[in-house]
């Protein structure tokens, strides 16, 4: 026998841990200050912080579309996480009774207000510059003040479009109409997310992002060496010259050409000879001074890798401002440059697990807000992983794995006058992990 008399049940019991992490770092409280609210307070049902929390927690829990909130607005646990005092929506008007959270249309106006300045229907407007500044501030705050080295990873990725959206442009490399976001990470921590149209160079905006990022890092970590790392798309004279003038190291990929291939040829011949004696796979390194014919202002240190993979040659080049004493060729390539692959994984997590490529608004600025919301969700998950999951079996897990194993827990919610009682599923296989995460988050709050 089955009926619908089970009471108020949520499938996202783990949102309580997410709420604990978010409140401990003040994420939604700080993010709410990045919005200008022109609404008449007499008629406001959803405060800015509640709307922001609903959106960020929804993304973290795996709900990518605003349409999902048509049902989620009935979820009492998500309402508790968002800070609602009436999580069952009992005290709302007759049309919205039982729906404590905001409707999809309200959240849509929250994102798209930047595209409708002066509209009487869009009175809650995000300030994109402040959102980006708060993201940087929140990320840099996680660095140790005693850090001696900070590596800043830059990369560009594609976000495919869903129709005739503003800024639509066909990108030949990705083979589709897309945007070209600029993403910056320190380790796995997102520090910058800037939406760009695809009709431009991948490195455009690098210096504009470097200036506030480097300033923030130096204020937090005054003794740290800062290193810019990126692929060949960021090997541009403007960026390298700025780094040299501001005492910032760099390690950037360098696209192959005939002149570089000629300089590497003796090392490649040496690698082929060695490969013939040791099974067909080997690599050799060399370095030399190199200057382009007209785009570079000076000669720079270039590392060449001559690699043989069976019957295939795999030459690679890296240009750097770092010294030979600190970074010999092989160490610089294998330990420093190749480590940027970790950032590639972070970008995949942002786009696939936290829906950073779900940019389906009609306006370009609204899609920038969407990208930032996903990036804040990524920041929240990263802090949750670093603090709550430290030393556990999920310490290195992706957002999707954490969501499946720790957030998706059935929970019965009971509301009384004074408290909200949550009864989590008795058959939950990770009770001990849940308790350990809660304990670590509580301890971090107490010591923080």
Short account of what is shown:
The protein is α+β, with helices and mostly antiparallel strands and 448 residues long. Helix content is 40%, strand content 19%. It folds into three domains: 8-127 and 365-447, no CATH class; 129-249 and 340-353, Nucleotidyltransferase, domain 5; 258-314, no CATH class.
Keywords:
3 domains; alpha+beta; single chain; Nucleotidyltransferase, domain 5; nine-stranded mixed beta sheet; 15 helices; three-stranded antiparallel beta sheet; 448 residues; 17 strands
List the helices and strands and how they pair.
Elements lengths: L7 E3 L4 H11 L1 H6 L2 E3 L10 H13 L8 H4 L3 H7 L21 H9 L11 E3 L1 H13 L8 E8 L2 E2 L9 E2 L4 E4 L2 E5 L2 E6 L11 H15 L4 E6 L6 H9 L3 E5 L4 H20 L3 E10 L9 E10 L2 E2 L2 E5 L8 H9 L3 H13 L10 H24 L11 H9 L3 E5 L4 E5 L6 H17 L1
Parallel strand pairs: 4-10, 10-11
Antiparallel strand pairs: 1-16, 2-3, 4-8, 5-7, 6-7, 8-9, 11-15, 12-13, 13-14, 13-15, 16-17
